[in-house]
Give the backbone structure.
Amino acid sequence: TTALARIATTNNAMFVTDGSGAPQWSTTPQVNVGTSADRARIGGNIYADFTDRIDNTGGGTEVDLGTFTVKSNTFTTNGDTLYFNFSGLEGGSGLTKTVKVYVDGVSVYSFTTALTGDWYIQLVLVRETSSNLKFSVLRTSVLGGTAVSDLLNGDAAFAGDSIVKITHTTTLTGATPYSTEYFMLCDYVPSV
């Protein structure tokens, strides 16, 4: 087989390869926004984990349900955005359970319940400066048959590689799974 050569356009190369792997874009691809003169950069899914992670340790031990390391060069331009989506199920009726979302070692959101049911959390991180991110957390859940939604906005420090994770804690120990994380996704959207 022959490696693809650099394909030149009027202004920039469309993609390059060194022959050792799949072609990669040399610049962030852009598309027209509808019929306007505006352009949008293309992003996409950079992480997906569909492995069920079950917390049945109890005893107040905090268990990681999902983690992802955001590399330091991910946020290169103010406005670059990451969307994290978490989904899970609470079991163990009557037990006190806490779910937390961390950014760079700091808990930015948590909820506690003794009810059973499903939950979905979206975390949005937007680069404001080279060392600060704006964040927004939205939780939607149906716990004990009641729908609940809440929203929290704030700032988070960002320096170098940063770990985003979701954890779970249960106060009692037993055989019943207290929480199951169904999936964790991360999508990247570059700034305009």
